[in-house]
Design goal:
By secondary structure, the chain is of the alpha+beta class. The chain has eleven helices and 40 strands. The longest helix is centred in the middle third of the chain and has 16 residues.
């Protein structure tokens, strides 16, 4: 079958020939070239019930290398298309079984000297991805100098957007409509909500990146108001030694309503499958963690033993020994490992990556233990001998290919030793959790650890927390370290209901519980029982209600049980209303834990789910519709709830 998109007058239309394609996604891709000396462009449209809305344009296509005479690439041929049908399983994440259907189309781009590049475009139900592949003219290695890629959102002025400024560890807020000066530098992911004809559309676009492989530099983007407002995508460095067949990472746009964005698995869908022969040793779970409450606690053997005891009491499989364990007092790291083994707890161990923050500049140790293949082999062998089952590697430098290679080296070497990995203080999730499933979580988030550092987090945390489910946590596990019921160096003003909700609202393959042992052990029995059996990997995830920065209600299912978490991100009381109809559960009772009379108390009750309201045809008794009444839960300012069915 052949499908032709209608182009603007004067444009060269490229048709897409499809073979055995019986599925057409709602994303329409229109590749046009305007004149022989002008850039090819790609216009993206969203088809919702026959109403086609243009939402983005890639106004400049193509890579720029050291041998290109100009940065102008013209599309010169029709694209060949084929269907994508895939299903795969994850060990951790928002959905353990993933399926994706789409169409891939490849277009040929050519410059004035006969150099050729392929533009590979995939359209899915929940978004579109594209990448470049070097073709004719690049048989000898060249230097990749950058990209032309310029993304222009096709919206009226005033589009809502949630952008986070790029930092090496990806730790910043996602403010609504931040000031954008030319060349302002932004990190992934970024969320846009277009306006058309002055009306806010129920259409969102999340911009991110996937499938960063060995030899790749990760990218970010810049505000670029030259030749029209938009965003310029650029790799973090110029990469040498690229040649014919080299493919860039996927540029990813997740597209749809907020349900589609939150529930999307597009980042892992387009990432390389895992090649490990055995993954049975990779187990998600909850971790007791000492650093948040005791910043230098890993120097104290007795304190570390208290956190092993906490994990044992709560039934959590893991306990993390954090920084400075190499200068421990009262015992040795081998003693801690032996104590954990004696109590049936699997210990994890912290390391400085020694690439981003060094001891001479005040960084904690141990350092220089993972920086070469020989050093990793020695250290990972020792970890196996002592009974450590994984590591948290911290303080990475940037997004250059050297750092990406280093991360991949760590993950691959760790897998040979059956060690779990948490890459901390560095780059963001880009699909590695599918390729390297021993990567059980990554930080790359402005999380609860910041209560330790500056007073800024106190006032902004609730609104930030209500933004993260729609931004950072969409793209992969997030080591936010939720559940801070007491105070660290700076106080929190979220309620206990809010903090409890975060343990489910935020997905992480290993969930670090950061508070003092007494904070958990003195909880009401109902709360403690939930925390004792808290899942960290989910069969499926549904967004039930919310809006970025205001509120979020997310349902996650594990082994047939539903956990519904909701938070109020505002400083005013707010009723959170949602329906459980999509959960498919019968009328049953659930345990609701919500805000109590004070910030530090709970209201605990058994709540009946409203029964199905069934409408029948009075003559035939045919069921016409089934629905449930909305559940309305009042929340305190910066409050929240957890509802377990």
């Amino acid at each position: 079958m052949k499908r032709t998109w209608i182009a603007a007058v004067g444009a060269l239309m490229l048709t897409a020939c499809t073979q055995s394609i019986d599925y057409m996604p709602p994303i329409q891709v229109n590749v046009v070239g305007i004149g022989a000396d002008s850039h090819a462009a790609m216009v993206l449209n969203y088809d919702k019930n026959g109403m086609v809305t243009p939402f983005a344009e890639i106004s400049r296509l193509g890579l720029v290398t050291s041998i290109d005479s100009a940065s102008v690439w013209t599309a010169i041929s029709d694209g060949e298309s084929y269907a994508i049908r895939e299903s795969y399983d994850m060990l951790i994440g928002k959905s353990l079984h993933c399926e994706n259907n789409g169409i891939e189309t490849t277009y040929l781009l050519k410059d004035g000297q006969g150099h050729e590049q392929q533009l590979e475009v995939r359209a899915y139900a929940d978004g579109v991805v594209f990448r470049y592949v070097l073709g004719k003219g690049y048989e000898n290695p060249v230097e990749l100098k950058g990209e032309n890629t310029k993304l222009q959102m096709l919206f009226d002025k005033g589009c809502n957007r949630w952008l986070s400024r790029w930092t090496e560890p990806y730790e910043d807020f996602f403010p609504l409509n931040p000031e954008e000066k030319d060349d302002a530098h932004w990190g992934y992911p970024a969320l846009f909500n277009p306006r058309h004809n002055g009306e806010q559309e129920d259409l969102y676009v999340l911009l991110t990146e996937a499938n960063v492989l060995r030899g790749h530099s990760a990218s970010s983007f810049y505000t670029d108001n030259r030749e029209g407002a938009g965003y310029r995508i650029q790799p973090d460095e110029m990469v040498s030694q690229v040649q014919t067949g080299w493919a860039s990472p996927w540029r990813v746009l997740i597209v749809g309503d907020l349900n589609t964005v939150v529930q999307s698995t597009l980042v892992t869908d387009v990432s390389e499958p895992c090649t490990y022969e055995d993954t049975s040793w990779i187990k998600p779970g909850v971790v007791s963690w000492i650093y948040w409450a005791y910043n230098h606690g890993s120097q104290e053997y007795d304190l570390l033993c208290l956190y092993v005891d906490l994990a044992k009491e709560m039934g959590w499989p893991y306990s993390l020994v954090d920084a400075e364990w190499d200068v421990m007092r009262g015992g040795t790291i081998e003693d801690v490992a032996a104590y954990a083994k004696k109590n049936g707890i699997k210990p994890l161990l912290w390391y400085n990556s020694t690439t981003g923050w060094f001891e001479e500049h005040g960084a904690p140790s141990p350092s220089w233990r993972l920086n070469t293949a020989e050093a990793r082999e020695k250290e990972f062998t020792w970890m196996n001998e002592q009974g450590f089952v994984g590591a948290k590697v911290d303080f990475f430098r940037d997004d250059e290919s050297e750092q990406m290679n280093y991360c991949i080296d760590i993950l691959e070497d760790a897998a040979r030793h059956k060690l779990l990995m948490n890459l901390h203080g560095g780059t963001m999730q880009r699909g590695w959790q599918r390729t390297y499933p021993n990567l059980v979580t990554m930080e790359s988030v402005y999380g609860a650890e910041w209560y330790n550092n500056v007073p800024t987090f106190t006032a902004k945390a609730a609104r930030h927390n209500a933004t993260l489910p729609f931004t950072r946590n969409v793209v992969g596990s997030m080591d936010y370290t939720p559940g801070t019921f007491t105070d660290s160096q700076h106080p929190h003003i979220t309620t206990h209901g809010h903090e409890l909700a975060l343990t489910v609202l935020f997905e992480s393959g290993v969930q670090h519980m950061p508070d003092r042992p007494s904070a958990y052990l003195e909880m009401p029995s109902e709360v403690k029982d939930i925390l004792k059996t808290l899942p960290t990997a989910w069969d499926q995830t549904l967004l039930l209600a919310g809006y970025p920065g205001e509120s979020a209600v997310i349902a996650r299912q594990h082994n047939g049980k539903w956990y519904i978490a909701g938070i109020n991100g505002t400083d005013e009381p707010k009723d959170l209303s949602f329906s459980v109809e999509r959960l498919g559960t019968p009328s049953t009772r659930g345990l609701l834990i919500c805000d109590g009379e004070t910030q530090y108390s709970f209201d605990i009750k058994l709540l009946n789910i409203p029964p199905l309201n069934v409408t029948e045809d009075s003559k035939t008794h045919e069921v016409l519709s089934q629905s449930r009444e909305d559940i309305v839960i009042p929340c305190a300012p910066r409050g929240g709830f957890l509802y377990v069915l």
